[in-house]
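Supplementary Methods, section 5.1.

A reviewer requested that the exact input to the structure prediction be made available. We therefore reproduce it here, unchanged from the version used in the analyses.
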Amino acid sequence: MSLGAWRCHGATNREMVEKLAEARIIKSPQVKEAFLKVDRSNFLVVDTSTTSRRDTVAEAPYMDAPQPIGCGQTISAPHMHAYALEEILPTLIKFSTSDDSAAGEGTRTSPTSTNNNKEGELRILDVGCGSGYLTTVLGRMVDRSITNKGRGPIPPLHPGSVYGIEVVDALVTLSRNNILKENKDLFDSDTVTVIKADGWKGLPKYAPYHAIHVGAAAETCPMDLMMQLHPNGGIMVIPVGPNGGMQDLYRIERIRDNEVYEETDFDVLALLGVRYVPLVHSDL
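The structure derived from this sequence is encoded token-by-token as follows.
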């Protein structure tokens, strides 16, 4: 992680993004363009559960730090979102530019899959979408819509679908409402969908995914999520470790197809130490 992490504050969204780029946390033009298209201030809220500080949109929308969004959850610091997207981007480019279609011709899908994606489209799962920010940024990267703001996916990426899942009802509503503020076209074009679901179980209905981002820390690597990765190199970026203890951000790549989980079907790489809120368990 760059020494500039935690220091990329800005007075505007553009200034924040430019500082992330100057610090070499944002490295690619695709990630930079997507960040510039989504104003982070639309995804911060007042956290009424805290009394020790004032957490308002006016105070710190472009501060390079996590911010509370209610329900005991946070929106990650901008540098962490940027870092995760830079890890995901090469895989999305690979699937978009390879001779095989992004859908992975001949690969096995989940037995419960009702995949309606067109051939060649990308599929991305954002687990623990919180206030909807990163789901929206991912949506701009693979945008299906042709609007003044969208104009389709960011080259060379294919268009696609981003599924944001969240287990807390209030955050599902928050995420949808935040996206509606300035990014309604992502809903209208079916680029982005926000669904209530258990992050540990993922969303097998639309698997396999070319990329999965997890925005909360799992105690162990969730096998259900790993099995929903595309078997020809789909990747997951996920923090793993105990709540309040040592955590690491991992990059997990699925390298072969198999009907059952096998540890050797995945390449697992620890990237850096992190601190995230826990991935919530539920009875869903």
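The first strand starts at residue 67 and ends at 70. These observations are discussed further in the main text.
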